[in-house]
């Protein structure tokens, strides 16, 4: 098979198919007698939805809500504070993803700490942080690892194979399916279906979502990221809702297998244990974290450095990221949005990452949120 | 951080590394998290330096059929 690369993506952006899907979505929507709210839990979905202007194509009566799908945005101030504590109390190089640089801790971000002399380096991935440690064995390197399963399985690969005395990992990993359950159990938000994250699903497969229709009679569609993929996911959910069916529909089969990525799942299960996790502005969510298994304690920064209990503050100055993260409020409803809080100087975490709901809304500068 | 990007395998470097062409830029990627063997010409998803999934060409063909259905009604 020698399909041309751009042909592969172009087809998934084909205008005719997009138009045909919108028509089909409108037809199904007309047969549903109530307003439908669909939640996605993926920053990349939000980014790609806004960039493609998809909300403006959907008929009235379908609301596509951004849930807490940006792992950078849900990183608690305490995590940042703890990493900075290590940097301030030990001679350590902090390595992390670019997006993490400007996530506010209680007092400052990593970027601001860098400005006063803390050694912080941006890396593309965990393996680059390992290389830093290999090149400078006299220097301690701490990799601040933030992500959902897509990212945490990659960090897991290094947890399992790397044994450098000067390298450690601070885990801020989170797990999506239990977070989805907690969202469904909340009574301050109402929605009718989940668009499940395509790339997390390449790792975990279909099975981890099956409890959602089984226990809650709630439809799920695993969707990819091109416009056609996202619209197919929405169409799939609407059909389920109209027919009162509830199942996990895999609408990203070209990359998502039912069983997921077996090697990656093995790595996750070996490297980590499920734990509680702090979600910025939202408190501690049980069983939604992936901490390093004590078998690999040698690489766990939380064991290597005796980090004290810190008093941290997630939200400041009128920031309502906690409401934006669960789709309770939209960015433009925040008093700070595009005034005091802008991509160039973010106050809240949702404005920091290119996948943060507020950053996406501000960057693409359209009135995508209709009342 | 779901910044997994599609790319084309253009060289097999070793047991655990391949070169991937991502819209014209060639990067090495780690294959340790993939059980299937990769060949030149395979389409893959690369995430922070690791390959996390291989495109299933049969499914991609099914997608073509699905679109024909969608367009035909």
Characterise this structure.
The complex is a heterodimer of chains A (371) and B (73). In chain A, 39% of the residues lie in helices and 17% in strands. Chain A contains 16 helices and 11 strands. Chain A is globular, with a radius of gyration of 21 Å. Chain B has one helix at residues 57-72, and strands at 5-12, 17-22, 25-30, 43-47, 50-54. Chain B has a 5-stranded antiparallel beta sheet, with no helix packed on it. In chain B, strand 2 (17-22) and strand 3 form a beta hairpin. Chain B starts with a strand and ends with a helix. At the A-B interface, helix 1, helix 2, helix 7, helix 8 and helix 10 of A face strand 4, strand 5 and helix 1 of B.
List keywords for this structure.
heterodimer, A: alpha/beta, Rossmann fold, 3 domains, five-stranded parallel sheet, 11 strands, B: 73 residues, 41% strand, elongated
Topology diagram in text:
The complex is a heterodimer of chains A (371) and B (73).
Chain A: H1 5-11, H2 15-30, E1 36-40, H3 43-51, H4 54-57, E2 62-66, H5 77-89, E3 92-96, H6 110-115, E4 120-122, H7 126-135, E5 140-147, H8 149-161, E6 167-174, H9 176-185, E7 193-197, H10 198-204, H11 211-216, E8 220-223, H12 227-242, E9 248-250, H13 262-271, E10 272-279, E11 283-292, H14 301-304, H15 321-325, H16 357-363
Parallel strand pairs in A: 1-2, 1-7, 3-4, 3-5, 5-6, 7-8, 8-9
Antiparallel strand pairs in A: 6-11, 10-11
Helix pairs in contact in A: 2-12, 8-10, 8-13
Chain B: E1 5-12, E2 17-22, E3 25-30, E4 43-47, E5 50-54, H1 57-72
Antiparallel strand pairs in B: 1-2, 1-4, 2-3, 4-5
Question: Could you write a compact summary of the structure shown?
Answer:
The complex is a heterodimer of chains A (371) and B (73). Chain A is of the alpha/beta class and 371 residues long. Chain A folds into 3 domains: 5-70 and 177-250, Rossmann fold (3-Layer(aba) Sandwich), CATH 3.40.50; 77-176 and 260-304, Rossmann fold, CATH 3.40.50; 321-363, no CATH class.
